[in-house]
Specification:
Helix content is 53%, strand content 13%. A seven-stranded mixed beta sheet has the order 3-2-1-4-5-6-7, with helices on both faces. The protein folds into two domains: 80 residues; 183 residues, Rossmann fold (3-Layer(aba) Sandwich), CATH 3.40.50. The protein is of the alpha/beta class and 285 residues long. The longest helix is centred in the N-terminal third of the chain and has 47 residues. It contains nine helices and seven strands, in the order ααβαβαααββαβαβαβ. 35% of the residues are buried.
Length: 285
């Protein structure tokens, strides 16, 4: 709807410029540079452009009214659609970077509105370096490469049970944590402040998210409409990971809740990378 409004405004500007140009031409003709028939032609063009400008103005008013109606509809239906959507669900939130920022607040609001709870919160320090992690795991057989370490860590965070890798490297990797491991979670939200600045960190994060995805719980990356560059393309490289690119809107919050509740995975939101604005809406349990 916003794109159409901008298009209408652009058309109005073009019409105005044409009218000004014609008026200048008529002014010149009034001083004898053109004949009367040409002047009438200018005047007819002005009348036609004015009629078109009036139609554009009417369309703009109609769009504004439709926009207000749509906003009112969303505000009225959002609480109903979100109510108990995630009731009893234990959700993990993984933040990659210094903080969740505004997107973190949006995610928290969505989970609260849907009745879910944050059972596990982990904020990862980036960039990631291999040497300290490898040293911490030197007595743990099998964990020597960065991707293997990351993959196992992701699984331990979301599947429950014993957590030998997380126990040893969390003090080196995690700058903020809430909740304890040991119990499986029902869904995972990823918030990423920016793309990895170096290749080793990128490989680590991809392996981590693949490990989380293989844990079996729905995995969703969430960002705001104005996030630039978007993280959606990198999330799409993780098999089974969904994305919501407009979590700062009511429809984005609903999409997040639907995906965490078990809707088929995909990319949702307003950006060109989105498959659709929303997943299919099923009645809440």
């Amino acid at each position: 709807m916003l794109d159409l409004r901008y298009h209408v405004a652009s058309l109005s500007a073009v019409f105005l410029a044409l009218v000004v140009g014609i008026l200048v031409g008529v002014g010149i003709s009034g001083r004898g540079f053109v004949d009367k028939s040409e002047r009438r032609n200018f005047q007819n063009q002005i009348a036609a452009l004015q009629a078109r400008a009036n139609r554009v103005a009417a369309e703009k008013d109609l769009l504004a009214q439709q926009g207000h109606a749509a906003e009112s509809f969303v505000q009225d239906t959002y609480p109903v659609l979100m109510r108990n959507r995630l009731a009893g669900k234990r959700i993990a939130v993984i933040v990659i970077g210094p903080s969740g920022g505004a997107a973190g607040s949006d995610v928290s609001r969505a989970l609260a509105d849907a009745g879910g709870s944050v059972a596990l919160y982990r904020a990862i320090k980036v960039p990631v370096t291999l040497a300290p992690l490898r040293a911490a795991l030197q007595r743990t057989p099998g964990f020597r490469t960065l991707p293997v370490i990351a993959h196992e860590l992701g699984q331990e965070w979301v599947t429950g049970g014993v957590t030998p890798v997380a126990d040893r490297i969390s003090p080196l990797l995690v700058e903020e944590q809430r909740g304890t491991t040991g119990r499986p979670v029902d869904g995972v939200v990823v918030i990423e402040s920016s793309a990895p600045a170096d290749a080793p960190t990128g490989r680590f994060l991809t392996a981590l998210l693949n490990g989380v995805a293989q844990g079996g719980a729905p995995l969703v990356g969430a960002e705001e409409v104005d996030t630039s560059p978007s993280l959606v393309p990198s999330w799409q490289a993780v098999q089974g990971m969904s994305s919501v690119d407009d979590v700062d809107t009511p429809s984005g919050k609903l999409a997040l809740a639907l995906l965490l509740g078990g809707a088929p995975s995909g990319a949702f939101g307003l950006k060109p990378t989105a498959d659709a604005p929303l997943p299919r809406i099923e009645p809440a349990a």
